[in-house]
Amino acid sequence: xxxxxxxxxxxxxxxxxxxxxxxxxxxxxxxxxxxxxxxxxxxxxxxxxxxxxxxxxxxxxxxxxxxxxxxxxxxxxxxxxxxxxxxxxxxxxxxxxxxxxxxxxxxxxxxxxxxxxxxxxxxxxxxxxxxxxxxxxxxxxxxxx
Length: 145
Fold this sequence. Notes:
Blueprint: H1 2-17, E1 29-31, E2 35-36, E3 41-44, E4 49-51, E5 57-59, E6 64-67, E7 71-76, E8 82-90, E9 92-100, E10 103-111, E11 126-134, E12 137-139, E13 142-144
Parallel strand pairs: 1-4, 2-5, 3-6, 4-7, 5-8, 6-8, 7-9, 8-10, 9-11, 10-12, 10-13
């Protein structure tokens, strides 16, 4: 158990100190530390990105996270997550469940506008889906879909 804790601490220090050293975020990634995008994460099948830890800040840095047929950003069972400064798109752009203290700022959440499937069922295209989300805030943002 100590070995895992040491590895986590070293990883956190390495990523926190030098943004230029962070590997590029790719489709399907699970974000577990504060992350700033350096390019779009687009054209993803399924879920584009998932927040996989509490206390994570995802700075979109003006970029887009996009799923062509699924969820752009998934947040489940998390606390104190922040998403800033970009666009999230997907059949369901952002799906949050069992989440507390989610903050979305300076972002555009767009559901269904990039859907490349032939499915015309508009009920499956949503900008934002919140299930059991508490004490959360969306500010200076737009939501469509």
